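pasting Cation-transporting ATPase for the record, 1199 residues
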Amino acid sequence: MGENPAKNHYAQLNQGEENEMEIFGYKTHSCRKALCIAGYILSCGALLLLFYWKPEWDVWANCIRCSLEEADVVLLRTTDEFRIYSRKNVSWISVSALIKSRSDYPATAEEDSVFSKAIMKPSLQVKSIQVQKIRYVWNIYAKQFQKVGALEDHHTCSAIHAKFGSGLTCNEQNVRRVICGPNTIDVPVIPIWKLLIKEVLNPFYVFQLFSVCLWFAEDYMEYATAIIVMSLLSIFLTVYDLRQVRHLTFFHKEDLFLMSGRGFQELESHHLVPGDMLVLKEGKTLLPCDAILISGQCIVNESMLTGESIPVTKTHLPQADNFKPWRMHCAEDYKKHVLFCGTEVMQTKADDRGVVKAVVLRTGFSTAKGDLVRSILYPKPMNFKLYRDALRFLMCLIAFAAIGMIYTVCVFAINGEEAGEVVKKALDVITIAVPPALPAALTTGIIYTQRRLKKKGIFCISPQRINMCGQLNLICFDKTGTLTEDGLDLWGLLPSERNCFQDIHSFSSDCSLPWGPVFRAMVVCHSLIVWEGKIQGDPLDVKMFEATNWVIDDSSGHQIEGQGSTHATVVRPGPKASRAPVKGVIIIHQFPFSSALQRMSVIAQEIDGEQQVFTKGAPEIIAILCRPETVPSNFESKLLLYTAKGFRVIGLACKSLQPGKQSTNLTREEVESDLTFLGLLIMENRLKRETRPVLEELSAARIRSVMVTGDNIQTAVTVAKNAGMISPTNRVILVEANKIPGSFSASLTWKPLEESKSEDYGSLEDDCQTERRIRLALGSGQYHFAMCGKSYQIVAQHFRPLLPKLLLNGTVFARMSPGQKSSLVEEFQKLDYFVGMCGDGANDCGALKVAHAGISLSEQEASVASPFTSRTSSIACVPELIREGRAALVTSFCMFKYMALYSTIQYLGVLLLYWQLNSFGNYQFLFQDLAITTVIGVTMSFTGAYPKLVPYRPPSQLISPPLLLSVVLNILFSLSMQIFGFVVVQEQPWYSKSDIHSACPSVNNHMENSSSISSPGLHGMRDGADGQTDNGYKSYENTTVWLLSTINCLIVALVFSKGKPFRQPIYTNYMFILVLIGQLGICLFLVFADIDDLYSRMDLVCTPTTWRISMVIMLAVTLAVSFLVEEAVIENRPLWLLLKKTFRYHSKSHYKRLQRALEQDSAWPPLNETFFSDSVAISVEGNMGGHSNPTFDSSEDAL
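structre below
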C-alpha cells in the first residue's frame, strides 16, 4: 500500500465474518477539540448529548482524516443495512520491560506470528483497539488491525505439533500475556446506576426529562412526579430484563491450575495464552480456553454450547505432513480435535506418549464460549417492521404536535399573552402529543408473554424475537430426537457373507446373535463410556451395545503389543451374553462420528488377538468404502425396502490390519478403505406421540413444515409421510444432482418417487400410465421435492436460478451437514419466509441461531445455542410459541393504537380549550394519564393467546390499511364528539361565559361568599380565607370536553382490545375488565356527583342533569359507532380480501410472486428429465457454514 492517506484511511475488520466492520482512521485536531469544548459549554451539554447519540458526528467534529497507521481514534461502521457507527480510541501497549535484549525478541521463536509483527521498533510498543471485548493489534507489515487471542489459522498440522508441542518459553508467554490480555470471560454485572444513566440518555427519556422540567416550571408538581415514577418504573423493568438475561446465560470464571510451558509449571487459567501447551489431568475438568488436542483422547460434555448432553469423543490432531492449514486439512471435522472453553472434560485417555496434551487455540472472548457471550451482549439489531413503524409513528405524533404548536402560538399571541407563557404553552403541546406511558406499556406486553412462556417450559434469551414468532410461516424440523423418539429400537440385523445377504436376525425373538464379525462390530464400533456407573453416549450406540449383553470395563490400562501401556476401553461378555471364544476386546483408537463424513470407525483388538478396523455409518457411504466384491448385488433394493418403511438403517464393515503396524499413526483415509461389507443394522425410529397432531395443526394454519435431517432420504420421506408432512395423495419428486466426472459442469435429474409395492420395492417408475397419474397430481400443485445435502450443494453451485423454485416445494432435505442446514434456512429467508427452526442437537446450532426463531429442545433451562429453549422435548412447543407470538404482536398493535388515540384525544381536547385560553387542570391531566391510561396499559397486555391457530397471520406492520383506517376513523369520531360537546354546551340556555355557577343556582348561593368569580384565562388565584381554589381552568367547556375525552379513552381501550382470532376473548382478562368497570364507575360518578370539594379539586363545574345525560348519550353513540366500524369494517377479513381482489393487489413477498409464476408454467416441475449446467460454477463455500443472524426484514404484506 502506498503512503496515500485517503487510501490507507479505510480498511475492513473481520472480513467475511459475521461481525464484519469498516474501520476509518482519524487524528485528534487540537483546534477542533477546543471549539467542540466551547460548544459543549455554550449549549449546556446539549452538543455533548448529541455526540453521544451520534458518535460519527463526534469524530468528524473533533478529528481530521488520516491513515490508520497514524490514527489515534478509529471510527467503526457495521457493513449490514443498519450501518451503525461506534468510536474507539487507539491505545498503546508497552513490551519494553519484557524485551531487554535482541535474544528476547519473540520473532526468533516465530517470525510469522502476529505478536512479532505488531511490535514497533525501537519503541517496543504495540498499537491496539478493543472492539466488542476483542483486542486487535496493528500489524506493521500487513498495515492492518488483526485479532489477537487466537492461534493463527495458517499453521499446518505438523507445524502445530512441532512449534507448540513442547510449549512456549517464559519470555514468549509474558509477551503474549501482555498483548492478549488475561484469559477471562469476565462480564462484570454493570451497576444499576450505570445502566440507569445509559437508559436515561435514550432519546425518549431525554424528551421525558425535558417534559418534566417544563411541568415543574408550570407548577404541574403531581403530574411531573407521576411521570418520573412511571419513567423510572419503565427503566427499571428494562434494566431488570437485561440483568435477568445476563444471569441466565453468563458463566462463571474457572480458576483451575493447569500445566503449561516447557518447564511444566503450574499456573492459574487466566494466565494462559494462545500457543501454550497444557497437560490435562484425569478427572473432571472445566476447560478455561479453546485448545487443540495433540496427544491422547478426551470425552467431553458440550451441553453448555449445544444443549445436547451426550458425551462427545475428541481425538488428537493427526501429524499430517502437508502444506494445507490444519483447519482446511481436517475440513468440517476440525471440531473433533478441538476442546471448547466452558465444556467439561469427563474423561481423558492417554496414548503411548503417556499424557494428554493440548495446545491453547483461543483465549478469553475469542473462544467459542466467549463468542456466544458476545452474541448476547451485542445482539444483531432486528429490522422487524413493527419497530421501524413504531419510530414512524412517533415521528407522525411529533409532526402532529408541531401543527398544534403553531396553532397555540397564533391563538395566544393574538390574545396578547406574555411571550414566556406562549412558549410554555406551545412546548406543552409536544408533551401532550407524545404519550409518556409508551415505553412502559410496550415493555410490559413482552414481559407478560415471556412469563407465560416460562410457565409453559419455554425459556427465552432474546425477548425482542417473541413478536417475530407471530409472523412465522415456515418451520424447519430436525428428524431424530425432534420428530421421532430419541431412542431407537433395534428391529433386525441383515448380515452379509460372500457378497450375499443372509437371513434377517430379529431382535424381538429370544435367540441370541451368534459370535462373528457382525457381532464384533456391534460390540466395539461405538463411542460409549461408563460415567458414574451408567453407560452414556449416543442413544443409537447404547441400544446397539445393550443388544449384545456385553459390558464395558473402563477401569484400567492395558498392554497393547508394540505400543506400551495405554488407557484403552475394554469390552467383555456380560453375565447374560451368549458364549464367545474371547475374554474381551480392547478399543485401541477411535475416529469419532462425523456429520460431514456420515460414519465412525474404531481400531480394536481381541485380547491376545489381531487388530481389526470396524466402521459403521450411512449404508450408501459404507458401500462405497468397501471392496465391490463384498457388497451384495441387491444392496440398493434391500436398502430401499427398509428405508421406505421408515426404518433407520446403519451399514457395518470391517477389515484386518497388518500385524506390527502402529495404529495411532494411521490416518482416517488409510483405515477407512478396502473394507469388507458386513451387513445392515435396522432400527425402528418411532414418531413422538405429539408429532403428527402438531404438524396437522401447523398445516391447518397454513404454516409450512420442512424436514432437515442427517438421515437417509428414503427414511426421511417415509417419516414425513407418516408424520403428515406429505399427504398420501401428494407426489414426491426426487431431485438428484451429480458432478460430471472430468468436467466442471453438473447434471440435475428429476425422478418421481413411487410408493413401495410388494413385488417391486420402491423402484422409480417411468411408464406412461404412472407419468399421466403423476402429471395430474402435479397439475394441482400437490407435489413435494426431496433432495440430499450433496444435491443441495451442487444445485446451489451450478443451478443457482433453480434453487428458489426447488425450495418453494422442497419438503425433505436429507443427509444435510450442519453448514448446509444453516445455508438452507438463509435461502428460505431470502424468499421472504419467516423461518423457525426446531432441533435438539449440536448439528442444529448454526441453523437455530440463523433462523428468525430458533427453538432448542433441551433439558437445560436456557441453551445459548438458540433464542428459545423448550424443557419438554417435543415439538408441541412450536405452535405454543407461534400462538404466544401472534398474541404478543396483536397486543403491541393494540397498545400502539390505544396510545395513539389516547394522546390524540387529550391533544384535541387541550387545543379546543386553548381556543378560549383555557386548558385541563393538573388533576385532570393526572387522572387521565395515571388513573386511566397507565392502568389500562399495564392490564391490557394480560390477555392470553387464543388456543386455535387460524390459517392467517396478524399484520406485520403498523402502516397497513386496516390499522391506519382504524386509528384515523376513531380520531375523527373523538374529534367530532369533542367539537360537538364544545359547541353545543355554549348554545345551552343556562350557559354563561363569566359565571361558572349559572347552571346550578343552589351551588351559586352556597359559594358566592366563599369564592371569587372565575375569569376565562389561565391566571388563577387562591383565596386564602377559605382555602377554596380557582385555577382559572373551570368552565363549562372544560368540564364537558374533559369528561367526554376521559370516558372516550375507556371506549377506545375496550374497542381496541382485540380477542379472537389471535387472543382470547376480552372477558377472559378479568383484571382488565374489572379495571374498565372500576374506571367507568368513577368517571360516571364524576359526571353525576355534586360534591363541591371534589369538583373544586378536579376543576369541574356543576351542570344540569339533562346536560349530563346528553354527554352520556354522546358517549354511547360514539361507542356504538366505533364498535360497529371496528367489527364490521376493520376486522372484516372477507371485505379486505374482496378489496384486494377488486384492486388486484398481490403480495410482494418473493415466494408468493414465484408461486404465481410457477402456476402459469405448464412445464414445471420437470419429470424424468436431466438438466446440465454451464461449465462455470458459483462458489458458495462461504455460505455453507452461515452462522450470521440475517436482517429480519421481509416485504410480506399479509392481512
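The chain has a mean pLDDT of 79.
The CA atoms of residues 806 and 918 lie 67 Å apart.
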